Amino acid sequence: MDTSPDSRRVVITGLGAIHGLGHEVASFWAGLVAGRPGVHRVTAFDPTDFACQIGAEVRDWDAAQHMDPKEARRNDRYTHFGFVAALQAVRDAALDPAREDLDRVGVVIGSGIGGMNTYESQLRVLAERGPRKVSAFTIPSLIGNICSGLVAIELGARGPNFGVVSACATGTHAIGEAAHMIRRGDADVMIAGGSEASITPFAYASFCAMKAMSTRNDSPETASRPFDRDRDGFVMGEGAGILVLESLAHARARGAKIYCELAGYAATCDAHHITQPDPEGKGLSMAMKRALASAGAAPESVDYINAHGTSTPYNDRFETLAIKQIFGEHARKLAVSSTKSMTGHLLGAAGGIESVICAKIIETGTLPPTINLANPDPECDLDYVPNQARPASVRTVLSNNLGFGGQNAAAVFRKI
């Protein structure tokens, strides 16, 4: 096992993304830079009776065009997204399984909810047609670790493999824990991120009952408006964001293209409330502080923050407070944006797709905007890159994600 310093540094060499803005990274990124909203009226089911009728759906998607049709039929939509995005990332990394020690290649792909489509459809079968008609593939299809398993089977990857479930912090936790596996020598390569497909009647009914979602149904494109005074809740999104992570030594040995280094990561808990963030921002502040410390990065070295920025009254205010607590006067010099203004909130996939975004920011020197920021909340008074993308000299980027249960995740990305 390589024990050189470069074996403990973790870099990103491949990116994969599935979203309504694009079924691969290039078109997805182009949509973000253009400030294009990915939110529309829901078409997956008739939303007429729901308080929230809008979402960022992946439209014109046929999983059988991207994977074996038999496997597509046997697996849930969330698995389709994660599986295809993972193979995109592997191709982008030019990672050839035939040339790898597959005992040292692992997969950690998380989902906040898992196979919600399967759960609902098979409950309908049970109610309408009886227990003998329930599919034998129901359990493997709906559980949250199957995407990781399916990717491993496809690649022959026998290294560490499991799913992560921590609500909306899932994707960042999956990526951060995968990086830890590389640093401690358990793997040379990890495929990691998040996938979610929860634009379903039951999921919408449940979130609407919590009054957590926007009801700006007459103007879907402007409904997700993080940090805006008139925000009224989050907008559901779906899709996947997956990274190929490698030790720096391994990436250099095979001549891989390197997007950036995943330099730091931390996970904390608010221990405050099951759905509301700590009003003093304690848990998130500690996550950012620890992530920066693990990266050996001073707060003033950070150029940009990809905020969790859900467009909910509580999150945006408390996240702004936490940023001020950690960055002090430098908070006024930072660029901060919420790409959820365009992508919607992908729940367990949010950290995955936002990590893809962070890598592209470092590669291109372009900051995607916070769109729909027309009337800033007086308590949200930082530079949120309003409404238009911006060129910038970017070396160090921080990404935040928070989840129900009080779970927080922060990751630091740095140019090599």
Automatic annotation (TrEMBL):
Enzyme Commission number, as recorded: 2.3.1.179
Enzyme active site: 168
Keywords recorded for this protein, A-Z: Acyltransferase, Fatty acid biosynthesis, Fatty acid metabolism, Lipid biosynthesis, Lipid metabolism, Transferase
Highest rank taxon of the organism: Bacteria
Domain (Ketosynthase family 3 (KS3)): residue spans on this chain: 7-415
Coiled-coil ranges (or none): none
GO biological process: fatty acid biosynthetic process
Any one Gene Ontology molecular-function term assigned to this protein's record: 3-oxoacyl-[acyl-carrier-protein] synthase activity
Entries under CDD domains matching the protein: KAS_I_II (cd00834)
GO cellular component, one term: cytosol
Pathways involved: Lipid metabolism; fatty acid biosynthesis
Annotated catalysed reactions: a fatty acyl-[ACP] + malonyl-[ACP] + H(+) = a 3-oxoacyl-[ACP] + holo-[ACP] + CO2; (9Z)-hexadecenoyl-[ACP] + malonyl-[ACP] + H(+) = 3-oxo-(11Z)-octadecenoyl-[ACP] + holo-[ACP] + CO2
PANTHER family per UniProt: 3-OXOACYL-[ACYL-CARRIER-PROTEIN] SYNTHASE, MITOCHONDRIAL, POLYKETIDE SYNTHASE-RELATED
Family: Belongs to the thiolase-like superfamily. Beta-ketoacyl-ACP synthases family.
Function noted in UniProt: Involved in the type II fatty acid elongation cycle. Catalyzes the elongation of a wide range of acyl-ACP by the addition of two carbons from malonyl-ACP to an acyl acceptor. Can efficiently catalyze the conversion of palmitoleoyl-ACP (cis-hexadec-9-enoyl-ACP) to cis-vaccenoyl-ACP (cis-octadec-11-enoyl-ACP), an essential step in the thermal regulation of fatty acid composition.
Name of the featured protein: 3-oxoacyl-[acyl-carrier-protein] synthase 2
